[in-house]
Amino acid sequence: MVDKIYGIGVGPGDTDLLTLKAVNVIQNADTIFVPISKEGKASVAYDIIKTIIPENKKVVELLFPMSKDVEFLQKHWNNAAEKVMEENGTVAVVTIGDATLYSTFSYVWHIFNENNIDVEIINGISSPFAAAGVLNIPLVEGDEKLAILPQGKDLEKYLEEFDTLIVMKTNDLEEKLKNLKDKKDNYLVGVVNRVTSKNQKTALGKIDEIDFEPFKDYLSLAIIKKLK
Amino acid sequence: MVDKIYGIGVGPGDTDLLTLKAVNVIQNADTIFVPISKEGKASVAYDIIKTIIPENKKVVELLFPMSKDVEFLQKHWNNAAEKVMEENGTVAVVTIGDATLYSTFSYVWHIFNENNIDVEIINGISSPFAAAGVLNIPLVEGDEKLAILPQGKDLEKYLEEFDTLIVMKTNDLEEKLKNLKDKKDNYLVGVVNRVTSKNQKTALGKIDEIDFEPFKDYLSLAIIKKLK
Questions:
Q1: Among A6, A57, A66, B39, which one has the highest count of C-beta atoms within 10 angstroms of its own C-beta?
Q2: Is the pLDDT at B217 greater than 90, yes or no?
Q3: How high is the ipTM of this complex?
Q4: Going along chain A, which residue ranges are E strands?
Q5: Distance (Å) from the C-alpha of residue B105 to the closest C-alpha of chain A?
Q6: Domains, in order of start, for chain B
Q7: Residues in chain A within 8 Å Cβ distance of B138
Q8: pLDDT band at residue A123 under the 50/70/90 scheme
């Protein structure tokens, strides 16, 4: 039976964005669990930490498939949680970005809490912050309001009301922004794919200046700022 | 004249939440600038990094006073920016939390950009994420929406519309939440002061279960989740 589970955010891509605490806990855990979305597919989180893992450390994959079938997902989340809880000693479960924001870790976190397991979160750098850094623009200042909308849910409404919007997953963002018609020039848009990784792509400009094609990959996000 | 300016988020309080990159840049910078809010007052950011600063490193204070007088503030921000830009070599300007979210760094960042100075942001752990970690609750999952409201601006409206709200500065949050009357039990509230520091205080519960008194200090924030 597991003693303690660390839910560790490993940041968006660059190994140097790991915190001192994350490195320390990963290096001292008895077992490290890394998420994969498909059998045989590489783990993005594992790629971020592989250079800091000591030799002979036990690393186990956890399958978190992508699906809209809630029952199917719940079955896999239960399986993943069981696998972690059956392990001995202290374990590190890693997740890209931060464990508290749209993370794979949250799917098993609930199950650990229901089982009264000792869980400690080690925060990581979240991709919207890394994106703002790379684009060299602040997210919010002073008394500005910020909203984070997965898949740009209710985008048009909140574009009016908020100073800054973050859109997680930008597959259909272009289409949504085109609906703004004559209001399109009121916004500055930054889009980033796989921020701080070797394959990072970025674009920054008015809506009509941006080629959205490279940002239809699922590890993309947008920062939309109302111009003043 | 300065060669390069690093805007470095040093996280919310615990030195171990610095990233590897932040430690490396701080230790190798020619000069480290630390913000203070008043002459003679300790710098929270400096307290976070002091144990990792090499001996004999040049550390300079930058005064960012608190005021509602925009002209007075602008004068101090200009002075602070001048002081940094006049320095030789590479400099680190540190800020608590992350440099992109309501940071003191953003006040001088604009001035550096206007002067075409080479700026690089090194992200830090932002306090809302650390707070969620410490409270052992996810901020958002799946397709949930999140808003960050400084001083709880438009709180009542967005409590209805968002799954999770983060309120930065909670001085008058209690009063605002009391206005919810019979809807008060629809929410779970977590409040945290000086998260991850030695003086951290936390509370988690329904609105009527929380004593808001200890959270009227300016380094407090709240996470409000709609119960389902």
A1: A6
A2: no
A3: 0.96
A4: 2-9, 31-36, 58-63, 89-95, 119-122, 146-150, 164-168, 187-193, 201-205, 220-226
A5: 9
A6: 2-122 (3.40.1010.10), 127-226 (3.30.950.10)
A7: 99-101, 103, 106, 109
A8: very high
